[in-house]
Each structure stands twice: as structure tokens, then as C-alpha cells.
## 1
Amino acid sequence: MKILVIGSHGMLGRELVTRLTTISDLKNQGNKVTGVDREHVDITNAANTSKFIAHVRPDVIINCAAFSNVDACEAQVSEAFAVNTTGAKNVASAGKQTRAKVIHISTDYVFDGDKDKPYIETDKPSPISIYGKSKLEGELAVQEINGNYAIIRTAWLFGPYRENFVTTMLNLGRKNHTVSVVTDQCGSPTYTADLSYAIQNIIKLDFQGLYHVTNSGTCSRFEWAKKIFELTGNQVSVIPLKTADFKRVAKVPQNSSLNCTKYTKATGQRMRPWQEALEDYLDTM
Ligand SMILES: NC(=O)c1ccc[n+]([C@@H]2O[C@H](COP(=O)([O-])OP(=O)(O)OC[C@H]3O[C@@H](n4cnc5c(N)ncnc54)[C@H](OP(=O)(O)O)[C@@H]3O)[C@@H](O)[C@H]2O)c1
């Protein structure tokens, strides 16, 4: 089986390619994994994407490419839709032409955050940001175009290869010895290594449809920051803040935690708690 990872220079894409080409049992079964990014294929360009995928002829395409800067999406609306919607559509169409399965990565930010429990796959999305809207349109395009798909909604990613909430907290803590963090945004921090393992399961079991996949458990960003400093032993005071007092460009959901029961039931495997995953990540730093 040939697996093509698009967006392989990003935080998830790099982790995924590394895992699939080194320790995955998919690799041991003789599968070939190729990672590509913008310099190989620009997914906003339909002809370029179609030609590239027709040339590679993968059996499975994992689309990790995205315009993922939530605040920047508000100012660069057409670019956000070009990558997150048109790009998703182009990959799905090119995959259909070559009969490839498309695994599309999406986000918790397709929800408005007003639910008081973790979201399930059948909850109605209602995004409140350009990023969320462009990602939801991307999901709909994949579902409409290529019947052979799995969409994985994930959240609050951390891992090596790119700045993320954990590295930002550590850098701010080192510099200022105090950080202010919001208490009224809840979600499920997710380690890219654990998500890569779950994606591997989804390929092996040939799942179709929509799945929520995050590390288990929910916390506020404030609790997440506290845990980071507790685990690293850094003496940093974490000051609670409300979203309303924290100026950011994009609106973000108050509760975007995802219920992953569908994935757990289908695979028989529960994603481990985010605290354990965070501890492992910090050990690697
Ligand atoms: N990060 C999170 O907390 C989070 C949470 C929930 C869901 N997700 C989803 O998870 C997936 C992976 O996110 P990530 O954090 O790994 O993203 P990332 O680090 O921003 O990586 C995205 C990659 O896609 C590439 N890309 C952008 N536009 C492209 C184009 N037109 N053609 C080809 N490649 C292009 C980027 O290249 P450039 O750097 O050159 O632009 C980058 O290498 C995305 O679908 C994202 O929406 C992320």
C-alpha cells in the first residue's frame, strides 16, 4: 500500500511521516509512505494537485495541510478558504480520480462551544471563526466528492516540530516567571504522537466516516498551563484570566472538547489521558 501524507512539514504531518516510516507496523508490512508539502504540491491548485496525485498513485492520502493560524485566518479570509476548503476539495477530487482513500484532518473549532458536554460526531457544527468555517466547508467537500473517506476531528495539538501551547507557556514562563491564561476555554489537549497512532489504526481497519480523536479528558487552558509547570517543576505563577479580558482576533469556542467514544468502540482502544501524553512529550524535550 502507498500512503501519501500532504502537509508533511507541519506539526502533525512531520510526526505522522516519522512514525509511519520508522516504528509503525504499517511500515513493517511493506507499505511505502511519502511525505510532501507545498513545494511538491500546492493543494489550492486543482490541476497541480490532480497531476501530482495521478503521478504518485497513492492508495491512501492523509491530508494534514491547512491554514492553521486561527487569528491570521480572520485577516486572510480568501487564503484560509483556498487552503482549508478548496484545497480539501482538490485533494478529495484527485483521490477520487485515482481511487485513493482520503483521510482528512479537521478540527474541534467547527463547533460554537455552547454545549456543556463534549461534542459527538452527530452534533451540528456551527463555527464562529473563519478558520472553523473554512474547515467545515472542507469537511463537507470531502464527504460530497469522495465516498471513500475518513474525517478525523482533533483538537489542541502539541508535539515536536512546531511552536504550540506547551512551548509558548514554557518560553513565557522562563522569560516572565508569570503567565496569564484563560479559565473559560475548555478542550482536550492532544499529542501528535498519539494521534498518529490513531490515524494508523484508522488506516489498518479501513474505517469510513467521521471520527473524533483526541487524548482523553478535558481541561481549561489555565489547567493545562498549571500542569505544564507542575510537571516541569518550573516556579511560574499562572494568573487566571477570562476570555473577555484577553484580546485576540478570532472568536474561539468556550467548550470544544470532543467525545471520542465512537473511535474507542470501533477500535477497542481508548486514547490515554492528556496528562500522561503531556508528561511523555515533556520528557522528550
Ligand atoms: N494545531 C492544532 O492545534 C490543531 C487543532 C485541531 C485540528 N488541527 C488540524 O490538524 C491538521 C494539522 O495541523 P498542524 O497544526 O500540523 O498544521 P501546521 O503545522 O500549520 O501544518 C500545515 C502544513 O500544511 C502546509 N500547507 C499550507 N498550505 C498548503 C498548500 N496550499 N499546499 C500544500 N501544503 C500546504 C503548511 O505549509 P506552510 O507552512 O508553508 O504554510 C504546513 O506545512 C490541520 O488540518 C489542522 O486544521 C490542528
## 2
Amino acid sequence: MAQFPYRDRWALVTGASMGIGEAFARALAERGMNLVLCARSADRLQALAADIASAHGVRTHVVAADLGQPGAAADAWARASDGRDIHLLVNNAGFGLHGRFEQLPRDRQGEMIALNCTAVLELAHLALNAMRPRGDGGIINVASIVAYQPVPWMATYAATKAFVLSLSQALAEENRGSGVRILCVSPGPTPSGFQATAGTSVEPSQPGYLEPRAVVDRALAALDGGRTQVTPGAVNRVATVFGRLLPMGLTTSIARRMNEHRGA
Ligand SMILES: NC(=O)c1ccc[n+]([C@@H]2O[C@H](COP(=O)([O-])OP(=O)(O)OC[C@H]3O[C@@H](n4cnc5c(N)ncnc54)[C@H](OP(=O)(O)O)[C@@H]3O)[C@@H](O)[C@H]2O)c1
């Protein structure tokens, strides 16, 4: 399959203000893509947009939005695509929470579902309705290695990412041969703002550890190759294979032992 056509086209990257989303934005700009950067922190996005535009000579636009709010995804899509054809959607914004299910605030878990699932679904729906008639485009959904099995102490987060993985794989099949590529990326431990929000920690010595830029390089190589899913890092790929092949009760029990003491 031919490399994804990046140059002079527009990408919408959600969660672009830091971490994996910022790495996506910088890597796409290096490939000549114009960028709509979306997250809540308008100031961070404006500074990043100016930096990227001057470093790579691409056009940038900022859409500040809380994608967890009802109607926010549709509004963000409308603002992003006003006067621009979005050719690549990177559905990256998301967060996790670590802790025992009944002890984590119910409303925060609802916000997680709204951002990690509902906003991803709505943006993918809007993007596909624009891209399918053109027979051209791509959607990258960011899941996680926790999508492959239940994860005690991150129960709701893992469930949201299982939703993203399942939705992405079904959409990839529905859109096979349409000209629209659908890719699900499942990162393992990656240093970013994620750990502070989730209440976890990450160390370079941790198995599967990768920097955000390494995650993104592998994701874009997979998009270029026309793949529908990629798990960056050999250790992380092995974890997802075990998650699929071993009995669910066994992998869930192993995950509980690995996670219950992993709080920051
Ligand atoms: N880091 C990891 O170990 C890891 C592993 C597997 C998967 N992932 C996934 O990777 C994706 C990116 O996470 P990250 O690791 O890069 O974390 P991060 O550094 O915390 O970045 C999260 C991004 O999402 C934005 N965001 C958060 N809430 C938002 C909201 N309500 N509306 C709009 N934007 C919002 C944040 O910006 P604002 O605060 O400015 O809104 C930020 O740009 C997530 O989907 C995460 O689940 C991460």
C-alpha cells in the first residue's frame, strides 16, 4: 500500500497539548501536514501551534474544547473542518484512573467514558461521513495494551479502551477498500501527563516503556503500511497476545497482582 498522503493536507489531533498527542502533531508536521490542534488548554495549544508552524512551515489552527462535554465533539469537528477538509483524524485525547472501582469518584468515571468512548465515537462518525464520499482519509484511534483484557484497579479505563479497540477493528473492516484507513494504536507504558492524572507512575526500566515519539513513529509506519492495528514495542505486543490467548480469569488475576500496588 502507498504511504499515507500527508503533505499539504489537514489533520485534526485531539489531546494535542502534550504527551502522545503533541508527539503526533510534531511528527505529522514533519511530514508536511497542516494541523488542527485540539485540547482544553488554549494557551498551550497556541504556543505549540506557533512553534510547529515556524519549525515546519505548515499551517496550524487551534480548537480549544472540553471533549467530555455533551455536544463538544460535534462542535469541535465543525470548528476544525470550517474551510478545511480534514484528511486525518487522530482520536487521541483520553485519561485513566487508578484505584478500586467503588472508591473512584463515579462522576470522574463517567467523564472518562464521555472522553475516551463517546467523543471518539462521535468524531469518528463525523470524520467518516466526510471522508467516505471523498474515498480518501484516515482515522487513528488511540487505545492501550489494557484494551486486550480486563484490568483490576483500572477497571473502567481498560473497559473504555476495549471499546476503542473493538470499534476500531469493526470500522477498519467496514471501510476496507474504501480509501479510508482506520488504525488502532495500543501503547504500553509511555511517560506523559497520563501518570499524574491516573495516579500511577512509569519508569524507563519498566517492561514495554517507550517515549511518546517512538509510539508515534510506529503508529505512522503502520498507517503507511495500511495496517489496522499496531502495538508499539515487542514486550507490549507479547502482553496483548497473552491477553487474547490465555483464559480471561488467569490474565485478570495476573493483572490484579501487577496493578494493585502500582499507584504513584
Ligand atoms: N501514557 C501512557 O502510558 C498511555 C498508554 C496507553 C494509552 N494511552 C492513551 O494515550 C492517549 C494520550 O494520552 P497521553 O499519555 O499523551 O496523556 P497526557 O499527556 O495526559 O495527554 C492527554 C491529552 O488529552 C487532553 N485532554 C484531556 N482531557 C481532555 C478533555 N476533556 N477534552 C479535550 N482534551 C482533553 C490533554 O490536554 P488538556 O489537559 O489541555 O485538555 C492532553 O493533551 C490517551 O487516550 C491515553 O489513554 C496512554
